[in-house]
Design goal:
It is built from 4 helices and 5 strands, in the order βαβαβαββα. It is about 40% helix and about 20% strand. α2 packs parallel to α3. It is an alpha/beta fold and about 120 residues long. The chain has a single domain, classed as Rossmann fold (3-Layer(aba) Sandwich), CATH 3.40.50. About 30% of the residues are buried.
Length: about 120
């Protein structure tokens, strides 16, 4: 039996976060959630393993999703990074190596396919 792909969803909007977690869980992923970058960093530092980070860009606190993505890629290089925003047009130069940007609104079907494709290429 293959293990489930673990995904950390970082989204400050509670309803969107709950919906995203539920949908990705329904697609067969092992999903954890964080409301902001600081919470996400604590989860990563706890030793919990993830194959993918799916993070919003604009969040409250002293670190946004792009800074979180850069930190995660530098500390845990194998983790795939998917960044989303409905307010910013993120360019590839803003992302860590192999990071992917998906604008809001997005289809969770597309996100699930993207996570699977990234995991297969790992």
């Amino acid at each position: 039996m293959t293990s489930k792909i673990s995904v950390l969803v970082v989204e400050d909007e509670p309803l969107l976060r709950i919906h995203t977690v539920d949908e990705l869980t329904d697609h067969g992923f092992d999903v954890m959630e964080a409301a902001n970058a600081q919470e996400a960093v604590k989860i990563f530092r706890s030793g919990q393993r993830f194959e993918c980070l799916f993070t919003d860009v604009d969040m409250p606190g002293d670190m946004d999703g792009l800074e979180l993505a850069a930190l995660v890629k530098s500390a845990w290089p194998p983790i795939d990074i998917i960044v989303t925003s409905g307010h910013r047009d993120v360019q590839s130069a803003d992302l860590p190596p192999q990071g992917i940007f998906v604008g809001k609104p997005y289809s969770l079907e597309v996100i699930a396919e993207l996570i699977n494709r990234l995991a297969q290429n790992a």
